[in-house]
Amino acid sequence: SLTDAPVILTILQNWVPRVSHYFDKEHYTYVGHQIVIQESIEYFGAVVWPGALALSQYLESNQEQFNLKDKKVLEIGAGTGLVSIVACILGAYVTATDLPEVLENLSYNISRNTENMNTHKPEVRKLVWGESLNEDFPVSTYHYDFVLATDVVYHHTALEPLLATMVYFCKPGTVLLWANKFRFSTDYEFLEKLGNIFNTTILAEFPESNVKLLKATIREN
């Protein structure tokens, strides 16, 4: 139901900005760990967007409600890997996915930030929304407790494949947590389409950043 009032939150300024022309390294602290994220200005996916900060903060603050320990977690459109790193710190078996051109930076950030941790080793994999899902992630083998997505909806042409990908991975029992900055009518249209297929609840809103955080579960017929 969209009737439960969402929590109103502010994205906490818990990072130290560093400036350089090409690679920006952003320093964050979540769940007691210093996380250093290398960004690249060449790709959309290689910058930390506000939805990633919102979901990271929410997962850190709501560990009882969403206990990721030993859970199988898939992040789609993982970008710089911040959310996957936080999920890993929280004890999840994480698979971080994105487009081929983003994987090098994604792998670098994830391995660098998790190598000395006593956690499950995260996996980084290519995933093009809507393509080769059955071949690369056969249903018989892959079942996820959580699917995480942040700022995956913006002006791009892959919204239909994105929705199909969410539906593909969200089996009964899977929880989709999606945080997004809402800027355009297309963002709200996507939310409406999601609501036609999933049971959706807005868990939190970050008004200063125009970010909404939603929980969605597939409707069981």
UniProtKB/TrEMBL annotation:
<keyword id="KW-0949">S-adenosyl-L-methionine</keyword>
<protein>
    <submittedName>
        <fullName>MT21C methyltransferase</fullName>
    </submittedName>
</protein>
<keyword id="KW-0808">Transferase</keyword>
<keyword id="KW-0489">Methyltransferase</keyword>
<dbReference type="InterPro" id="IPR029063">
    <property type="entry name" value="SAM-dependent_MTases_sf"/>
</dbReference>
<dbReference type="Pfam" id="PF10294">
    <property type="entry name" value="Methyltransf_16"/>
</dbReference>
<dbReference type="GO" id="GO:0008168">
    <property type="term" value="F:methyltransferase activity"/>
</dbReference>
<dbReference type="GO" id="GO:0032259">
    <property type="term" value="P:methylation"/>
</dbReference>
<dbReference type="InterPro" id="IPR019410">
    <property type="entry name" value="Methyltransf_16"/>
</dbReference>
